[in-house]
Give the backbone structure.
Amino acid sequence: MTAHATAAAEPAHGHPTPGTYTKVGLVLFILTALEVALYEITFGEHAGALGDLRMVFVPALLTLSFAKFALVAMFYMHLKQDHRLFAGVFVFPLTIAAIVILALAALMAYHMAFAKSGG
Amino acid sequence: MSDAQAAHLDTSTGLDSRKLAIWTFIGSECMFFASLISTYVVYRNKSTVGPFPHQAWTDPATGKVVEGVIEIPLVTVGTALLLFSSLFVVLALYGAQKGNRKMLLGWLGATILCGLFFVGMQVYEFTHFVHKGLTLQRNMFGASFFTLTGFHGTHVTIGVIWLITMFVLALRKQLPPENSINLEMAALYWHFVDVVWIIIFPVVYLMQ
């Protein structure tokens, strides 16, 4: 048996149990329901039910999405238990990707503000 | 794989090279989707003609009013199923690692069904949008929307094909515990497709 096969045949030490996976799945479902509920009370049919939430809508939505992203990456993709090098080759480009998105969004917002001011 | 397991591997890193390769690939895919998502964000609300995602629009040529094209309930169901499919595939992997063939086949089959439903949902959505007059060439929203979600849908389709391959291997008893790494790589790709949708769903469908 090769070294690869030997390693794979061993139980995955520290990997979560089906119970933990199910609990994480439940939390993911609740977070998605919260996202949609937030949309409904901000822009949907029940808009204004809890006041004007437009100012907190985007930050709240991004926070919920980040929480879901982190849960899937840590528990389902096993980054919490696996070797740090795997996390490194994922998180490094992910950080660059996030910076690219934020920088382009900021640049475009600045450009629009500059254009509106007649500059 | 734990550090204890890694110590068994005769590679320069001490880690499984196939797993490192799939993680590196996933890292490059992050950059790919970042470019598509940032393009969508930059062109958001820049369309001069409709149809629009959320607001109604009156076609000046016909006088016909076209409501916002986005349908939140349908996409929410698709999103929930994609999230559940991530749970199902990880349970299938657990079954593969433990040699539990029934668990492997059952959960893997459920994952494939969820993936197929998601692809079907997207095909219906695209057809619906085209019927409402939104095409790739119509406006900035159409161009960036179809490119972003189309590429994601293509990734989901490739993931479904990969998982079906794993299912067939498991049916033929060619996916024993010592080869569960093959399913683990497919599962990692599937989870990545899921986390990309976790970003796309709020950015494209919920933000106004």
Notes: Chain B touches chain A through 62 residues (CB under 8 Å).
